[in-house]
Model the fold of this input.
Amino acid sequence: MIPKGAAPTAEGTLAQSPLLHLLVYLLDKALTGTVVLTAPNRVVSAVHFHEGTPVKARGPDGSVPADMAGLERTLLSLCALPAETRYGFYKDKNFLASMGRAEPVTCAPLAVIMAGARQTVGAPQVDATLQRIAGRPIGLATGAAPERFRLLPEERALLERLRARRQTLDELSKSSGVPERMVRSVIYAMTITRHLDLGVPSKPPVGIPPSAPDASAGRISQPGPRPNDQTYPFMAPPMSTPPGPPSPRPGSSGQTLPPSRSSSPGQTLPPSRSSSPGHSLLPPRAGEATLPPAGPVSERRRAEIEAKLGSIEREDHFQVLGVGREATSAEVRTAYFKLALVFHPDKLPRELNDLKPRVAGLFARVNAAYETLSDDARRAEYVLSLSRPAAAAREDEQDKVARVMTAVQDAKKAEILMRSDLAGAELLARRAAEGDPEDPAHRTLLVWIKAQRRGTPPPLEEGKTSPFYDDLIVELDAVLQKEPSYERALYYRGELFKRSGRADRALRDFTKAAELNPQNIDAVREVRLHEMRTRGKKGGGGRGDEGSGGLLGKLFKR
Done:
């Protein structure tokens, strides 16, 4: 499979960099090339990536699937390879070009990562990652797109809880009402792809094209500066970059993985920690570096941090920031930045690195206080909550959780009942939407069931439109105003536009739905049919005939 003389750009073992971490890294950096995996029994598998997305794979059985479902199954089978499996990444090389079908296969990488997380939860690398965030209040990150993970209804409900209120992994496991294994797999997948807000500056979420709308705009705020060269300080990336100038942004020219020892002349590597062939792509483990002795300034800083750690659990948001109840937004912001200089984990001197995990949790509290007090509506709600008994607040929270979980179950039953009893399905969907009005899935499902019950409009004359579904379209407009990237609402609205004779508006919705999820076969089919009709009217022979021009070509040329 590997041509003679070909040298890997990077190499290691799955014990050092689990396959899911490699998938995240390649997707984040938008790299093109082939990963070759050699299991301990010498069986060779491979995955070819185009700009970070897997497009072809050869499984351990030698098969090269020709469709999306087969590709995803093969990727999941590779996630089960032993930790001793060695990998090599060959940048800009395609060792699978002559295998299987010539055209690349469409794949949803975040959905594969989520499925892999469900499969590997309980593995040491999963537990190690979750242990690092165990005490942190977490929420959805700015720009997070949970709909790209192909979540189950219970998993979506988990994330809605985080959207409503930041909480720790332990709190989520105890109060969510879903199996702990499911909680851990969702949080793990969302953590390694940076779709969670952990209270520290980070890069944008992985797997979101630069042009994709911000699905969480206006719902989650991220205060303070967000340096481009920062990532979660508590979680080592799957591969480290050798010393040198800062790397270009993901997707820019020149972006490479760390070079291997067999790379071209002029490239340098950090020294290996072992005498075994190849080199580790992980940064030094915690505790390996020799730290300088602490000086008086560091000791004063340590005492200040320890004092804050000892008091913060008893403090409300105003006390955390050190401001009064009447503080202005400007005063809140000033207080936040002063505390960030002292308590941000990345501001710690090296001799205080042992405090980093605890300081990260402390700064998460500072961040949460700033997010709440800098927003007038959230601040008013928080001040009101301070005057309410804690028992009543807990009871309200438990009631809300119960309503959310009941709504999820009602929605699942409604989807099943749609096949035989639309009236009963509408009743259940309405109950779900009323039980959890913040979940766009429930409201969208209710609109679609109502459309199915209403039937189709009378036949339309050429060029005429119908107001038959206008009220339902308005309901979907409201959903998409809050969740502009909710693919299901876009597709259903496109269907209603099409049936109403508004083909142009339908095409816009189908196109956007297909861009958000190229596995939405129905949306992609509608775009393809439009292009076929357009070519037919023009007499054929246009660029669209080559499969690379037009709307459909744009959807898959990534």
